[in-house]
Amino acid sequence: MLKNYLKLAFRNILRNKLYSFINIAGLAIGMAACITIFVYVQHEYSYDSFDKKADRIYRVNTELPLNGTMTKVALSPATLGPFLMSQFPQIESVVRLYAFDVVGPYGKPVLKYGDKVIRAKQFVLVDSAFFRVFSFKMIQGNPATALAHPLSVILTEDAAKKFFGDEDPIGKTILYNGMFHFTVTGVVQNPPPNSTIQFDYLGSLTSLPDLTGYSNILKTGTQFNYYTYILLNEGSNINNLDSHGQKTLDGYWGKDLLSLVGRPTVYFERLGDLYWDNSLGYDIPVKGSKATVAAFTVIAVIILLIACANFVNLSTARSLIRAKEIGIRKVVGGERR
Predict the structure, then answer these.
(1) Measured between alpha carbons, how far is residue 192 from residues 50, 79, 175, 185 in Å?
(2) Which percentage of the chain shows pLDDT scores above 90?
(3) Is residue 187 within 8 Å of 157, Cβ to Cβ?
(4) Rounded to whole angstroms, what are the CA distances from 159 to 128, 164, 174, 271?
(5) How many domains, the chain?
(6) Which domain holds residue 324?
(7) Does any domain span residue 97?
(8) Is residue 38 domain-shared with residue 185, that is, in the same domain?
(9) Which residues contact 141 (CB under 8 A, 6 or more apart)?
(10) What is the mean pLDDT of the chain?
């Protein structure tokens, strides 16, 4: 019986080529468009979800009184992270990031190995605790010690392939801006596309005094050039930190900073919310828009409804022909089921 039905369906398609094409293609294209949009929406809402500790990671943002108005920025001073770590026992670890392509006057560095010269697009300096906080996977090297010393660098898989091909990169040196030799201490998997933190090279933050020529650059509290992330202990509540943080920070801000810009305000933003926050200045450029995602979701639903309505209308238009077919089936003994 099933074989007979399939044969009749195939003959029906061949006999009504235009109708079949419009009906099948319309429904197929509509469903394909909906699936594509829903995959995009799922990707947007998956940002930073790969991180195993995402629910405990927060970034320290600041609000500065600039030109008479409070301005929100994603940056904080170099000394703020260590100060918070020393004052609040609920903080398990702190990581600072310095991104050359976002902050600072130094621009994108030029890297050289042998005859290969590459202008680094995403050279980021980070604390040695980077891999204790974030779940980026090391392929080669020890994540606990790879960034412990100045002028150490970890390459992504793609960056290692560009420089060294099939060679083992560990222990080799890369010339930085024709002046400094960075030693390769590890290789890490390329950051997932749904990560707000993107990089090609991870250098040790303790290299910054050498690179800039300022020996006390990591000890000053007046330069807002760093992204500061904190990892809370399991079971700790960020609200407790928020409520007591401002009062504790009153003793942190120095006279130089207060006289320069006034008293800043610090607040903590969950890692999973960073992708959607477009209100901050000097933020990491990977950003999303909930309004855009909502608009695409509505479009997907409308496309699916139109495709279904088109399918139903065409099927209804042929109902008289189908009625004759049903009558013939009844006459020749077609069962109800």
Answers:
(1) 8, 30, 27, 21
(2) 57
(3) yes
(4) 20, 8, 12, 26
(5) 2
(6) 2-46+291-331
(7) yes
(8) no
(9) 154, 170, 185, 186, 187
(10) 87
